[in-house]
Amino acid sequence: MLILGIETSCDETSASVVQNGQVILSNTISSQIDIHCKYGGVVPELASRHHLENINFVIAEVLKKARLQMTDMDALAVTRGPGLIGSLLVGIMAAKTLAALYRIPLIPIHHIEGHIYANFLEHNLKPPFLALVVSGGHTELIVQQGYARYKILGRTRDDAVGEAFDKVAKLLNLGYPGGPVIDKLAREGDPNYIKFPRPYLPGSYDFSFSGLKTAVVNFVSKQSTINYQLSTNIVASFQQAVIEVLVNKTIATAVKLKQKKIVLAGGVAANSALRTLFLAQIKTGGLKIYYPSPLLCTDNAAMIAGAAYYRIRNKKIKYNPKMLMFKAEPNLRL
Q1: Domain at 128-291: CATH code
Q2: Rounded-to-integer distance, Cα 131 and Cα 142, Å
Q3: What is the DSSP string of 140-155?
Q4: Which of 23, 66, 218, 224 is least crowded, fewest Cβ atoms below 10 Å from its Cβ?
Q5: What is the mean pLDDT of each run of 10 residues along the chain (334 residues)?
Q6: What distance in Å separates the CA atoms of residue 198 and residue 239, rounded to the nearest whole number?
Q7: 103: left (phi over 0), alpha (psi -120 to 50) or beta
Q8: Alpha-carbon span 84 to 326, nearest angstrom
Q9: Peptide bond into 128 cis (omega under 30)
Q10: 3-state secondary structure of 112
């Protein structure tokens, strides 16, 4: 089964052709980081404008790389939400147009579901498992009970992890996006230099990183000057506080719910310190950890096409105009 996926939920314009939910025949991501970095974050109007400029070229490129035509596709898949409404609309309208023109079934996909299924592209993975989704807009603990069955245990009450990374990086004038630069800079610092708070929220599966971010702001405001070495120590200590909460809380939840498999997903899942700590902590717990390669942690269309495959693989699906009636949902719930 060949599925063309389209992803435009934020600031990456991506298309991909995936075979049988696991084999990536082609995958193209057009990033807008250079455009938004001067503003310290994504500007929604600029993002949607650049999606409009790039979407046709990206789709044409993945078909060319896969040496396939639209008529070879068994289905199309597109991110319905959550995300920026303008960005989502560009991808959805492109997908609807192609579906109607070539009479190909169209499958709307939840963005978080796509991130989880990025793992299926590289691992022989089957539900049930516990998923930790960590990105710029999401920090969630989810039990995936089946191929399209989810139970959300907890989510962030304020800042998502990636958002906290971006804000700390902006505070220290380190650039945007904050995650990769902090991950790199923290390797040169002392993670125990500052004992920032660990917001575990006992008795809850939820997360909260706003207080930790404020603790960093307060520490920085008390410094007369911040040199390079102090910056490395600040970000190393901040990152250590974040990853300890994520790892310890996720493992404790897995043990409590008797889940033997933990799946990482989302852009922050590419963080090297997070992966290292998870691998160190699960050695004695009889748990297995799965995470995608860094490229598939970021927003990409391969994960959207992969997720669509598992929704339709055992069904006889045909094109129907009613498939085009769904709307973009910027706050779509899983």
Answers
A1: 3.30.420.40
A2: 5
A3: EEEEEEETTEEEEEEE
A4: 224
A5: 97 97 96 84 91 96 98 98 97 98 98 97 96 92 95 94 93 92 96 96 95 96 94 98 97 95 96 96 86 95 97 91 96 92
A6: 11
A7: left
A8: 16
A9: yes
A10: helix
